[in-house]
Amino acid sequence: MNLRIFILSIFLMVSNLAMAQVKFEAQVSKKKLGVNERLRVDFEMNQDGDDFKAPSFNGFTVVGGPNQAVSNSWINGKRTYSKTYSYFLAPTARGKFTIGQAEITIDDAVYKTSPIQVEVTAAVDTPKDGNNSDFVASENLHLVAEISNATPYLNQAITVVYKLWVSPRVSVSNWRELDSPVYSDFWSQNIDIRQLKIETGEYEGEPYRYVILRKTILYPQKTGKLEIEPLTLSVAVDVPSDRRDIFGGRLYTTIDKTVAAGKRTIDVKPLPQAGKPSDFTGAVGKFDFKVTADKTKLAATESMNLKVQMSGKGNLKLFELPSLEVPASLEKYEPERIENVRTDLNGTQGSLTDSYTIVPGQKGRFPIPAMSFSYFDLESNSYKTITSKEILLDVDKAPTGAAYSSQNGTGVTKQAVGTAKSQFEYIKLDANLKDINSGPFFGSWMFWILLSLPFAMVILGILFGKKRAAMAGDVSGNRIKKADKLARKYLSEAKRSLGDQKAFYIALERALHNYLKAKLHLSTSEMSKDRIKTLLAERTVDGATITDFMGLLESCEFARYTPSSNVAMQQDYERAARIISALDKQI
What we know:
Elements: H1 2-19, E1 24-28, E2 32-34, E3 39-45, E4 50-53, E5 60-75, E6 78-91, E7 95-99, E8 103-106, E9 109-112, E10 116-121, H2 133-140, E11 141-147, E12 158-166, E13 171-179, E14 186-191, E15 198-203, E16 206-220, E17 224-228, E18 232-244, E19 250-260, E20 264-268, E21 284-293, E22 297-298, E23 304-314, E24 330-332, E25 336-344, E26 347-360, E27 364-368, E28 372-377, E29 382-387, E30 391-395, E31 403-407, E32 413-416, H3 445-473, H4 475-490, H5 492-496, H6 501-520, H7 529-538, H8 543-559, H9 566-586
Parallel strand pairs: 2-10, 21-28, 22-30
Antiparallel strand pairs: 1-3, 3-6, 4-8, 5-6, 7-10, 8-9, 11-12, 12-16, 13-18, 14-16, 15-16, 17-20, 18-19, 21-23, 23-26, 24-26, 25-26, 27-30, 28-29, 31-32
């Protein structure tokens, strides 16, 4: 019995010692940084202490701190405590430096942290500042443009997929597009994404979530190194802070972060000159070619249909089909183009058809020559030529009302031409003319109208001039009309999108931004909320109008992702028109 009590006592003592174990350690935001960057150092303890002594920070200058953060919480009857001293340091030179030991006194015992070695390198192109919220957002949010092929041939399809990668350490509450890429040296087509889908994956070896924002198919139209401009987004990122609520939960700070996919360079190879067919018109891909006729036996003056069809996968919209050539005895009409083309991540595929109507003018047998179509095959990296078969038309009989005779000595076949009795009935033989001398002109109603017309025009001109002068003198009225006209101009795209919630609010937000760019001479990079407030205040815009404008901008951001009725969209449209008119009158 005594042995059991002894063992239990030992167990309780060990447990109490484990629970009361003091933890005091140092952490740095990074162990390698540029001389133009900043370093954050945290000294964290799990029990409260006194007489904290920081190290000397040799090789660094203290630019911030010490900042003190305390967390004390009870969860299921268990107390959790932490206290942190934070410093922000700026390197003074390149080299390897040691963050020395910090000291703290807890329950009359002195505790020290372990030294940490940090390497300072040459200045970096993009400095990352310490471990503040903006830095955390930058490190955990990435916009990437994935290119399917960086070295395509001329007119070979490549895909660009824009992915927004988000670390589990942060969350994204909203985003909007700031600048869209312009593919000036490419033929491009966007692929519609009906619904954004959150997926999981790895980014640089770490688990991330990502969403595909845009998919685009590009066909390079020039050779050499071509640049793809970046897609730029403004993203609202929720970043955990050092503060906690009364329940011990970590509080989050929202950061508006601008991210860009970065420029990408595509090295476009020219198509080989060796073996290029003379009839090659730029088709690149994998194709099939055929020429078909709906009939080969017909009567003269009877029409037939002949189709020249190309199908397959490649740059279908960027080359022409071969032109049909027929004998002079056949009348050929302009073809009807039939397109059945679709575009997805695999490129453009489908078929193109030129449908010709052909009418023979006389009896005989008429061959339609074979046609050929050449393309560059990406699988074999060589040119391919497909040749159709010759089509022979057998015209059985002569046109109605015509007769054929044998050839005379000149070798010319004479054909009798019949004339119909009603052939010239469309020509009118009765002109129904009237004598101009049937009555006197002077004194007639036409005479008095023409005589009074100049005097009436002078009177109307005077009245119009007075009206115009009165309108020009109405400064207030003209200003209101001008402001309303300007508002309607910028809001025209939004008005056309009424009923489509997402398109309407995107257009409405773009209209508000474009109006400010035009009036305040702003660039896209300056379109922050604080900057807008400052500039409007400097232009003596009253506070209520500024508040209404900023509130409408925020409504546009959130309304795209929350259900909204047509009535609400109409009200927001009218509200935007009133605000733009008010701003234009005050600026």
